[in-house]
Write a structure and sequence with these properties.
This protein is mostly helical. The protein has ten helices and two strands; from the N terminus they run αβαααβαααααα.
Amino acid sequence: NLVQFLVTEMGFTIFATEESAVDADELNDYVSSGIGNPRDIVLRWNSGSRSILSISASEELLKIVEWIRSYNQSVSASKYVQFRGINFHGAETAMDVVSHFVRMVDPEFFPHLDSSYAVLKIILRETPWPENTVDGGRDEAFESAGDSQPNLFYVRDVERSEELLSYLSANRQKYLLQQPIPDVDRILHYAQLIDQQVHWLMP
């Protein structure tokens, strides 16, 4: 009822949750155009460590998603309610999406990007990622992992992420000749999220 009130009476157009921005885009595709199965998406969030919020497994969230989908079908696209994630975790999923895009629009650069992301994926998997992160949670995680754990991350890996982001951003106009603006900007946003997570995990 609160969501309905905020949308219909107060003019809110974004529903934000503390999920990965990349993963939340899947639900946004559903509420905007009916693509995907929301129940499958939410269940996948709660498998393993993809989700950090227990509410994401609840029927309450699914009811909200279905209401937003129904509402969007009754209004013009300019008034759609968007479903967004405000967290930057989920870098591996973002890398897969960016890699797929670059393979299509920039095949000459793809091998370099793909090999670089392969290295970053290994680093991300081996670096401690504390659950229910709060201020200071990253440092506490490194301390609990022992002195050797922070050495998994080197400055060159951060520079690798920055270099990829810089290249993709510099070639935005080139990509716009091949793909729609929303698709290109989503990829650049994902590249930014990847870079943010890499920097966040840097001890």
